[in-house]
């Protein structure tokens, strides 16, 4: 039996780029996202691979269990789990819709945690790999994207803890922490006209760095020198300075 990778948020951006790398490396795929039509076209473009599609809104309670049940009903098992689906929202905390913020937490945090929980037993059997997509946002507080930054701090902490917990088990956990990247993220988050998105990294480069780190079993991957420098600064400077620096790029429009 070939190796199978499950990718959430496979229809666009970093997730889509990761599916192409996985397919080129011979993985069969299980694609999970809301847009069935886009997943069908990805499947049709990869006739040499077995590609299963699970249409699911992962921001809904119980969605991760439904995904796991569908994979099992299909008789499949997973060697690689990529928790990539996520979205952000730009705006003052009290101006953003509470239900939408809950959906963000459910998708970025709960679905990622629960999918990891359901698939971990079989990943242990296969010496499998987990790739969680966090962000450089994980390293400091993020005014005007407060909940998003907090969800990514969770993903980083959870992933690093699990990587240590699983050392010696054969399962590797890698967390990818991109900075601003050219995908649909900016449009979904209403972030396109803020300073933070003045310069973005190429999505294929970001995916390649995350993919290589996952294959090598590295714990953390931060694409790009500028993002690296930002993370080092966030680690050494007071967190209140980090918050002010983020406010400068999230709270102000591009010139
Ligand atoms: N782009 C950046 O600047 C950046 C920087 C750091 C971290 N990240 C992280 O990278 C990850 C991928 O984002 P991206 O930049 O590639 O953005 P993107 O182009 O908007 O892709 C997001 C993917 O997530 C899926 N998705 C969104 N909501 C979903 C839901 N409720 N249920 C299931 N799937 C859902 C979307 O598919 P459907 O619409 O078909 O559901 C899409 O495939 C996210 O976790 C994001 O936080 C992005």
UniProtKB/TrEMBL annotation:
GO terms for molecular function: oxidoreductase activity. Gene3D superfamilies: NAD(P)-binding Rossmann-like Domain (3.40.50.720). InterPro entries: KR_dom, NAD(P)-bd_dom_sf, SDR_fam. It holds the Pfam family adh_short. Residues 3-183 form the Ketoreductase domain. Keywords: Oxidoreductase. PANTHER family: ALCOHOL DEHYDROGENASE. Belongs to the short-chain dehydrogenases/reductases (SDR) family. This is Short-chain dehydrogenase. It comes from Sporolactobacillus laevolacticus DSM 442. The lineage of its organism: Bacteria, Bacillati, Bacillota, Bacilli, Bacillales.
């Amino acid at each position: 039996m070939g190796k199978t990778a499950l990718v959430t948020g496979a229809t666009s951006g970093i997730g889509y780029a990761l599916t192409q790398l996985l397919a080129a490396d011979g993985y069969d795929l299980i694609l999970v996202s809301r847009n069935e039509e886009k997943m069908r076209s990805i499947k049709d473009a990869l006739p040499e691979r077995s590609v299963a599609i699970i249409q699911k809104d992962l921001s809904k309670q119980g969605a991760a269990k439904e995904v796991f049940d569908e994979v099992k009903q299909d008789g499949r098992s997973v060697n690689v789990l990529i928790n990539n689906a996520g979205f952000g929202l730009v705006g003052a905390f009290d101006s953003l819709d509470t239900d939408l913020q809950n959906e963000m937490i459910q998708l970025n945090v709960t679905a990622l945690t629960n999918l990891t929980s359901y698939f971990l037993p079989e990943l242990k059997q296969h010496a499998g790999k987990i790739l969680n997509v966090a962000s450089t946002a994980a390293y400091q507080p993020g005014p005007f994207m407060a909940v998003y930054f907090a969800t990514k701090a969770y993903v980083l902490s959870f992933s690093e803890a699990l990587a240590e917990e699983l050392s010696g088990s054969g399962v590797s956990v890698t967390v990818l922490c991109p900075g601003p990247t050219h995908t649909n993220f900016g449009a979904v988050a209403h972030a396109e006209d803020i300073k933070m998105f003045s310069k973005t990294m190429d999505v294929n480069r970001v995916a390649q760095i995350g993919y290589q780190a996952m294959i090598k079993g590295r714990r953390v991957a931060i694409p790009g020198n500028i993002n690296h420098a930002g993370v080092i600064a966030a680690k050494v400077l007071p967190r209140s300075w980090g918050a002010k620096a983020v406010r400068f790029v999230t709270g102000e429009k591009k010139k």
